[in-house]
Automatic annotation (TrEMBL):
Coiled coil: none annotated. This is Gingipain domain-containing protein. Residues 617-968 form the Gingipain domain. GO terms for biological process: proteolysis. It comes from the Bacteria. It comes from Candidatus Brocadia sapporoensis. One of its GO terms (molecular function) is cysteine-type endopeptidase activity. Keywords: Signal. The lineage of its organism: Bacteria, Pseudomonadati, Planctomycetota, Candidatus Brocadiia, Candidatus Brocadiales.
């Protein structure tokens, strides 16, 4: 449960509203376009109905101001004030500017506005996160005698919605001078937005075709849509990149077999005849000299023993130098083995014959890097691209009341590092310790004091401040290092004044030192003490089968030949001569130390990086769930959709050289959007669960079937985002496709959800339960009930709103009532309140969860699936490091029961943002007839972000668990009627006649046909007609036809046929005289 720790306690919301202007019967606060042309647009905002809410805190009165059709700014520390905004279509994202032409306002004294609260998460437990809420005033604003914000309007952001450049215009209709205590309330703001299309360079983007569904999204959100003169339908466009191949370099052979070789450690890898044969490479039919090995698009030289005879014999083998992948996603690198038409690259043989004249070095410089990733700091402030994984839990300083003798009452942690065969040379070493400040105390600077000890000797003592990266760096004598185990101790005296709030993380330790030429476990990675020619002698090998490679450049290793390996006592010594430079790296090893790949598998070729592909709907699935994904694809194809089912492994192969990385999925979607045949895909479904512990460092065994991407959010830090995948047009967060996810880990779960989707659509919700909606509100804050009431007000009059408001339960059981309402049938179920990953709030009456796994699994609503929406925190946190299921997944995974889909957040956010977002969603469902789940949820996010740039994180972190093509089972009120002709008309042949019809709002395109034989055969008049009339040129005829009919067929914005009608009776086309 999310706990509110109010740092300023005792705030009481009085709920008193003081009108600042004459009460009106209704308020029509609107942004209007007064003029729009190729150079710009003039916008007018008119507001009325400002209201004040008074808050008492520590005997002082504070106010917050609201206005209809506005939202609160909610920037932590800054005054909370109403804002509103809109989107405009513009020629390009650059060169857009705004000028304030006119404004009228009223100045009102006697105001003290509270700042928006700041929220921080304590700890990493997302099951019961501790949330600290603080009102911390931005001193630069609150101590300045000036009106904030300085500008009452501006360009909030620019970006792209598909091929259309957009600009958000943000209005700030209230200004506040905190020193004077006055506000300005703006009743009217007139602005001019300019872009001068003649001077702004057009976007270099290719126009891939918007698609019918997204064209409706543009129409819904761009205030100046009618002036944009967008094409009625997207053109078919041939790609300028038609020569792009499925893989640019070497990963695929020319029609032959390719092997994917997995590597997780650095070293020399050996592939035997049996290894390659078992993987499916037909060695008997190939010339081994044509074998090619590549990595990340670059061919690497290999050593293929025995290839000179042109056959791969059973005793032959291949050696290559492989390195692990080094990023946050995986250590598994992929090397591709293919058979080409020419000779593959081979390692250069460098002669290592001893001349007898070269110096024999005794030592070489090297670095020990010690790092263990075992503790994840998810909520790191301003983490960005920083490392979020640390050696262990934070070290916390003791709470000291006064200065104490050194070494008493301190907190410390020892770290053990092994150094073997170190040099006894009289030299220096360097020790580096990287720390990260876990805490920051504003009133104390510096607030960290850390000491470093090496083998019980203090070597560094520093104070530093805040949540920064801090590197201890100290030079010591080489003699300070011990042969064998060395101990580095981190110590926190706790004497800064920050007391126990002085907390730090250990990240890694490095030691630069001099090593000697002694093999460890029959191998050694070494260099030279300086530039020059040396006779290297490496002792300590157990066998004489020793090879040495120059691996200075991992993509161009060479093999040292003509080496000596004489026996010296019970061991062997490797001898060779080489020209070494600073940074030269040799790897010497016995044949027993050759590594085996972590995996060898035959590639199944795919061709998704091809401009010949075309689809409306993309299903990206893990291989385990391919059959279920294909079943859904077949069902969609039967309804007329062009569907492509793509295995996620094929995406890694074609877009990241076979290496696991979420970026490959976005690169694929970007390619499909830009280069597949128009119109570009509009719908994406991900099939498979994800885990943000990409490398399984917590050892939970949770697989990344189809990963999500971590983004940085203000409160939670690193947060999973599926929206990130569909940000494929422009450098912005606006979604360019409708995306959903089926978060499953097993084949039965995947099959179950696909069956639920198909069954729900074939047998849609029926009366009377399809007009029931359930609204659940937490009891912690009245705003949760207010939000629910706002949504209830958007239901059509024929709907029944069932309410479970927990604050009203002095007795009884709200959990059981929720279950009962869903079991009886509820088209929609909405929860407003606090939440954690696996539950809804806590019921204050008994401190039990309002709803959790036990309640969800007890549901028995077979054939009455509900759509669940949660205006809370974390209910959609499906990719956490803990393998538990989120509330969204629990609802979705119930076999034949639970939810058809869930819309829930992966992050922490504010009720004011949720209020705006969900208001837009319910408008989409019940006012704008957007019943497709992908379209409705995506349009809600775009709408909320258009009104206030503050709510960008809602766009990024709300996830649709379900198929974006699924339509909410709202009772269809479809009507289509041909009004003219309606029978009996006599229309001259070859003349222009106006066909007229009336249709319900969900139909946006129409196909018209006519019949000359009372409906036995039909001929086309026109397709994709918009509006409610069409000028038809009747066909010429030598003989009058008196058995004529007209038929009109209507389609929704997804292209689905909704209704058809035929003229009431026959009419006559009169022959020309």
């Amino acid at each position: 449960m999310m706990k509110n720790i109010l740092i300023i306690a005792g705030v009481v919301f009085c709920g008193m509203y003081l009108p600042l202007c004459r009460a009106e019967a209704s308020h029509s606060n609107k942004i209007r376009v007064l003029r729009s042309d190729s150079d710009g647009a003039v916008l007018e905002l008119r507001l009325s109905g400002f209201q004040t809410e008074t808050t008492e805190y520590e005997g002082e009165s504070y106010q917050s101001i609201t206005a209809p059709d506005t939202v609160q700014s909610d920037q932590p520390g800054k005054p909370r004030m109403p804002v509103c905004g809109t989107l405009l279509g513009v020629p390009a994202v650059d060169g857009v500017s705004l000028q304030i032409i006119d404004a009228s306002f009223k100045t009102v004294p006697g105001y003290r506005l509270l700042p928006a609260p700041e929220w921080k998460v304590s700890g990493n437990n997302m099951d019961e996160p501790d949330i600290e809420k603080a009102f911390i005033m931005d001193q630069d604003i609150y101590h300045t005698s000036a009106f904030y914000p300085e500008a009452i309007a501006g360009i909030g952001y620019t970006g792209y919605l598909r091929d259309q450049a957009v600009a958000q215009v943000q209005f700030y209709p209230v200004q506040y001078n905190p020193v004077e205590g006055v506000v300005r309330l703006y009743r009217r703001i007139l602005v001019k937005v300019t872009w001068n299309a003649r001077q702004v360079a057009p976007s270099p983007r290719r126009a891939p075709g918007t698609g019918r569904a997204y064209e409706e999204t543009l129409k819904n959100h761009l205030l100046n849509y009618d002036a944009l003169q967008r094409p009625a339908s997207s053109p078919e466009i041939s790609s300028p990149d038609a020569t792009i191949e499925s893989q640019e370099l070497l990963e695929k052979s020319s029609g032959g077999t390719s092997l994917k070789i997995g590597v997780t450690e650095d070293g020399i890898y050996k592939l035997t005849y049996n290894d390659l044969d078992a993987a499916g490479l037909k060695l008997n039919s190939i010339d081994p000299r044509t074998i090619i090995v590549s990595n990340k698009g670059v061919e690497i030289p290999v050593h293929l023993q025995g290839e000179d005879d042109g056959t791969f014999d059973t005793n032959d083998y291949l050696l290559f130098y492989g390195i692990a992948n080094k990023d946050i996603y995986t250590t598994k690198n992929i090397y591709w083995l293919t058979v080409g038409t020419g000779t593959g690259k081979r390692m250069t043989a460098v002669d290592g014959t001893l001349s007898g004249n070269a110096a024999i070095p005794e030592y070489f410089p090297t670095t020990l890097h010690a790092e263990v990733d075992s503790e994840y700091w998810q909520t790191m402030p301003n983490g960005g691209s920083e490392d979020h994984w640390f050696w262990d839990k934070q070290l916390t300083a003791p709470s000291l009341q006064s200065a104490q003798p050194e070494g008493t009452n301190t907190v410390s942690k020892n770290y053990f590092l092994s150094l073997n065969h170190i040099s006894t040379e009289n030299a220096t070493a360097e020790v580096r310790v990287r720390l990260k400040g876990r805490t920051s105390v504003q009133s104390v600077n510096p607030d960290h004091h850390t000491k470093i000890y090496l083998n019980d000797v203090k070597v560094d003592d520093q104070t530093w401040d805040g949540q920064q990266i801090y590197d201890h760096k100290v030079t010591v004598l080489q003699s300070a290092l011990l042969e064998g185990t060395n101990t580095v101790r981190l110590e926190l005296p706790g004497d800064t004044g920050a007391k126990e709030v002085d907390q730090v993380f250990m990240n890694w330790i490095e030691i630069d030192y001099l090593d000697t030429y002694v093999a460890e476990q029959d191998k050694l990675l070494f260099g030279a003490p300086s530039n020059g020619t040396f006779q290297f002698e490496v002792t300590g090998f157990g066998k004489n089968t020793v090879m040495v490679f120059d691996v200075t450049d991992p993509v161009s290793p060479s093999r040292i030949t003509h080496t000596n390996v004489p026996k010296s006592g019970n061991t062997y010594t490797l001898q060779f001569e080489g020209d070494a430079q600073e940074g030269t790296q040799y790897l010497a090893l016995a044949s027993s130390q050759f590594k085996s790949p972590s995996s060898i598998e035959r590639d199944q070729p795919s061709s998704w990086k091809s401009t010949s592909n075309k689809a409306d709907y993309l299903i990206i699935t893990h291989e385990d769930f391919y059959s279920s994904a294909q079943k859904l694809a077949n069902y969609r194809s039967g309804a007329g959709w062009k569907v492509a089912v793509i295995k996620v492994g094929d995406i890694y192969d074609e877009f990241n050289y076979g290496i696991f990385n979420p970026q490959a999925i976005r690169d694929f979607l970007t390619y499909a959007y830009n280069h597949w045949a128009a119109p570009a895909p509009s719908y994406v479904l991900l099939v498979g669960d994800a885990c943000q512990d990409f490398r399984d460092l917590y050892k939970t065994g949770t697989l990344n079937y189809v990963p999500s991407q971590n983004i940085e959010t203000n409160i939670l830090g690193e947060t999973p985002s599926d929206n990130w995948f569909v940000q494929v047009s422009g450098d912005d967060i606006l979604p360019d496709m409708y995306i959903g996810r089926i978060s499953v880990q097993t084949k039965p779960d995947a099959a179950n959800i696909v069956d639920k989707i198909i069954s729900y659509e074939k047998n849609p919700p029926a009366e009377p339960w399809n007009k029931n909606a359930l609204f659940v509100a937490d009891d912690d804050d009245i705003s949760f009930e207010e939000m629910s009431e706002q949504l209830v007000g958007l239901l059509p009059g024929s709907y029944k709103a069932n309410k479970v408001y927990v604050s009203t339960y002095s007795s009884g059981n709200p959990t059981q009532d929720i279950i009962n309402y869903i079991n009886k049938g509820s088209l929609l179920t909405n929860y407003s309140g606090h939440g954690a990953v696996n539950q809804w709030g806590l019921w204050a009456n008994n401190k039990k969860a309002i709803l959790n796994a036990s309640g969800i699994t007890s549901l028995d609503n077979t054939n009455k699936l509900t759509m669940v929406t949660t205006a809370n925190c974390l209910n959609g946190y499906f990719a956490g490091t803990n393998p538990q299921k989120s509330v969204a997944e629990q609802f979705h995974l119930l076999k034949g029961k639970g939810a058809i889909a869930v819309w829930a957040p992966t992050a922490l956010s504010y009720t004011s943002g949720h209020r705006l977002l969900f208001n837009e969603l319910y408008k989409n469902f019940f006012q704008y007839n957007l019943h497709g789940l992908g379209a409705a949820t995506t349009n809600a996010k775009i709408s909320a972000y258009a009104k206030s740039k503050t709510w960008g994180e809602l766009v990024e972190t709300f996830v649709l668990f379900g198929d974006p093509l699924t339509r909410l089972g709202i009772p269809e009120e479809v009507s289509l009627s041909v009004d003219m002709p309606n029978g009996g008309e006599i229309i001259p042949a070859g003349s222009i006649y106006t066909i007229q019809w009336t249709a319900s709002q969900d139909m946006v395109k129409f196909t018209l046909k006519y019949s000359l034989n009372k409906g036995k055969t039909w001929k086309n008049i026109a397709k994709d007609v918009t509006g409610a009339s069409y000028e038809w040129q009747t066909p010429g005829t030598k003989k009058s036809k008196n058995q004529c009919l007209v038929r009109v067929m209507g389609y929704d914005n997804s292209g689905k046929k909704k209704a058809k009608d035929v003229s009431d009776a026959v009419f006559t086309i009169d022959a020309a005289l």
